Amino acid sequence: MSMNASKTRRKVVVASAENGDSGDKLDQLLLSSAISNGEDLSPFIRKTFASGKPETLLHHLRHFCRSKEAEIEEVCKVHYQDFIMAVDDLRSLLSGVESLKSSISNSNYQLQSVAGPLLTSLDSFIEARNKCENINLAIYSLRICVRLMELCSRANFHLSKNNFYMALKCIDSIEREFIQKTPSSTLRRMLEKNIPAIRAHIERKISKEFGDWLVEIRTVSRNLGQVAIGQASASRQREEELRIRQRQAEEQSRLSVRDTVYALEEEDDDGYFTGNEGNDVYGNGGTANAALGFDLTPLYRSYHIHQTLGLEDGFKKYYFENRKLQLTSDFQVSSMTPFLESHQTFFAQIAGFFIVEDRVLRTGGGLITKMEVENLWDTAVSKMCSVLEDQFSRMRTANHLLLIKDYVSLLGVTLRRYGYSVDALLDVLNKHRDKYHELLLSDCRIQIAEALAADKFEQMWMNKEYEYSMNVLSFQIQTSDIVPAFPYIAPFSSTVPDCCRIVRSFIEDSVSFMSHGGQLDFYDVVKKYLDRLLTEVLDDALLKLISTSISGVNQAMVVAANMAVFERACDFFFRHAAKLSGLPLRMVERSRRQFPLTKARDAAEEMLSSLLKKKVDGFMTLIENVNWMIDEQPQNENEYVNEVIIFLETLLSTAQQILPGQVLKRVLQDVLSHISETIVNFLVGESVKKFSLNAVMGIDVDIKVLESFAENQASLVSEEEAILLKKALVEARQLVNLLLSNNPENFLNPVIRERSYNALDYRKVAIISEKLKDPSERLFGTFGSRGYKQNPKKKSLDSLIKRLKDVN
Questions:
Q1: pLDDT digit string (tens) for 178-220?
Q2: DSSP letters along 231-260, please?
Q3: Backbone phi and psi for residue 243, each to the nearest 5 degrees, phi listed first
């Protein structure tokens, strides 16, 4: 209803505006429309003041107010009845409100009278509750502070005891659980300031401990390496003893010794890793560790602390770099100290270093990796090989090289137990095998020369059994298993045992160098160098000795006897080399070798024979006293033969005590052959112009005496060899047989000559046959009757001479 009235009024205003001035009406209309629509009137006000006619605007506004008052009045008239009714309703309600107000006032009074004590109690309760909350908060804060102070006190205690890990755990707990809950800002600031300082302090302290451990571990590593290599040496010695017992047992078994008792001995390799943590020599907490001072606790403690500090990777790198620097420092070889004196310390330091690293690798919880250890080992092997190459190239003494080689091989055995590859080191040792043996041969050459120069070439006297054992039995050169009576005069000079000791030492040194070098079968190598020692060194030295220093028969006889003993000693040398090389003796016995001192033996026998021939030649000069034109047949031997026989018998009485039968046979055979040759050559020579048949018969007697002497030697040599001695006179015997034969012309028959005169030279026969004459020619003219003009034997001899001249 009001909306319709409003619309009706708006239409009336527009209609009345049309009746006035068109401009004013339009402005009035626009102003009314803007006010009705609630728009901004500022444009109208600005426009009015701009035109300078504010009265018009005021007029329009008053007009608008009057128009609205009419509308209000219209609306009031419409709604007045409802208003009256509402006022009546309000008046009726006013009385009820008054009564309600009175009731509420009464209720309020009653409520206040009742609630007053309760409110007082409530205020007391609230106050008490607030106090309780404050107290609880204070208690909670105090508890936090107490626990915090306890942790701080515990951290200080651990710091004072250098128990840094527990101190760091306390600090971590403070940071994680309490520093944000601490009610005291002063305490919080103090903690925030001191906790980093404490961590830095712990890092410094633990780094110092680690630095001290790095210094200490170098000395410990050297001692540790020496002990470990010493244990490897002891283990090797036990293995050698076990092998010796095993070889002895095998030898006894081979010789069918049935009473041998075998026992297996078990020995622990004390000091080597057994897999039992804390009990082995290189673990933490073992008894051997305490003895060696080998303790990894500072290292692991430092590593653990750095892990706790979050600096694990940095510490790993720091540890590796420092250990690498230490290893590089260990590689330095002092130029002030001979390597022979410092090599054990040098290698022991490196061995101890890698024993420690092996333990750190296995128990360090990833402190160092296997690849890093292998890289360090490769560097160490390369450096050690370089040092060995350099030092070996400078060495001029075999024993020095052997000492270093043995220690390096022990180093290899020690570190191989920990999984390190030592093939490169063994290759370096094998590479210098030839140089070592050349140095060893050179040393032996000097020693043998000194031994030969010191020998007086007299038979050795041995007064005690230990001397016999040391000089004879130890080289197996005895001819009988029966121990002789003492004092004992040996059939050799001091050269034999002295040279045997040198050769035996050479064998042992060679085997020592070749063994434990990665090569199992090295007997052939040892045998090759042993052959060189015997043939190039000992044989040449003996040859030189024989050619320059032997001047008497007794000396030559001793040297020849020495050579026979050397022949037995050489068998011992090869058996000894095989035994030390682990080769069964039956293998050596199957492959018997030629006597390596053949040249010296032949030269010694030749020298002895030459000296004996000179002696015999002195007696054979008496052959010039023979009456070569004797008229009667001699009944006894000539003087020269007696002298020769006396000399030979005197010689044999001495020689049979020294020389073996075979040597004596060869020498006698050569001397008798020389006597035979001397007789024949004397008849050929100018000293004899002619000789009779009776003189030939005298020579026949002489030869029979010599043949009887040869046959009588069957007690010294065998009968077959005595026959061979007799055959040494074959040239003189065949010549005498030819001259005494009835048909000398048979010499020209090839069959007869090969059978009966094969030792004769036809030129000598021709010369000697021409000298066979009888001054009276009665020898060939009185055998038969006067009817024979010429003796048939003489005729045959003349025919022989003629035909031999034709051949010449």
A1: 777 777 778 888 888 888 888 888 888 888 888 888 888 888 8
A2: HHHHHHHHHHHHHHHHHHHHHHHHTT-TT-
A3: -65, -40
Distance CA 513, CA 577 (A): 13
Q: CB under 8 Å to 684, separation ≥6 — which residues?
A: 764, 767, 768
Q: Which 8-state DSSP code applies to residue 772?
A: B
The pLDDT score that the predictor gives to residue 286 is 41
Write the single-letter amino acid at 121. S
Q: How many residues comprise the chain? A: 808
Two tokens, residue 597? 């001192």
pLDDT reported for residue 19: 45
How far are the Cα atoms of 41, 51, 169, 228, 540 from residue 456, in angstroms, in the given order?
158, 165, 88, 50, 19
Nearest of 693, 680, 689, 686 to residue 630 by alpha carbon: 693
Cα–Cα dist 280/287, whole Å: 8
Write the pLDDT tens digit of every residue in 696-720. 888 888 888 888 888 887 766 677 7
pLDDT of residue 100: 85
Amino acid at 731: E
Which helix (H) or strand (E) is 768 found in, with range?
A: helix 762-771
Residue-level pLDDT at 175: 79
Number of C-beta neighbours around residue 237 at 10 A: 10
Residue-by-residue DSSP string for 323-391 = HHHHHHHHTPPPSSS-HHHHHHHHHHHHHHHHHHHHHHHHHSSSSS-HHHHHHHHHHHHHHHHHHHHHH
Token pair, residue 307, equals 């892990």
The C-alpha angle with vertex 623 and arms to 618 and 625, in degrees rounded to 5, equals: 115
Instruction: Name, in order, each residue with C-beta under 8 angstroms of 538's C-beta and a sequence gap of 6 or more.
Output: 448, 499, 503, 597, 600
Beta bridge partners of 691: 772
CA distance 449 to 259: 46
Cα within 13 Å of Cα(603), Cβ side: 16
In angstroms, rounded to a whole number, what is the distance separating the alpha carbons of residues 35 and 265? 130
Q: Say how far apart CA 439 and CA 436 lie, in whole Å.
A: 5
**What DSSP state is assigned to residue 533?**
I
The full 3-state SS of 38-78, as one line of letters, equals: CCCCHHHHHHHHHHCCHHHHHHHHHHHHHHHHHHHHHHHHH
Quote the CA–CA distance of 243 and 235 in Å, as a whole number.
12
- Euclidean distance between the first and final Cα of the chain, in Å? 194
Helices (H) and strands (E) in the chain, counts: 30, 2
pTM of the model: 0.66
Running DSSP on this structure, what letter comes out for residue 488?
E
Neighbouring C-beta atoms of residue 222, cutoff 10 Å: 20
Q: pLDDT digit string (tens) for 505-518?
A: 998 888 888 876 55
Q: Report yes or no: 533 and 444 within 8 Å, Cβ to Cβ.
A: yes
Half-sphere exposure of 124 (CA within 13 A, CB side): 6
* pLDDT for residue 631 is more than 60: yes
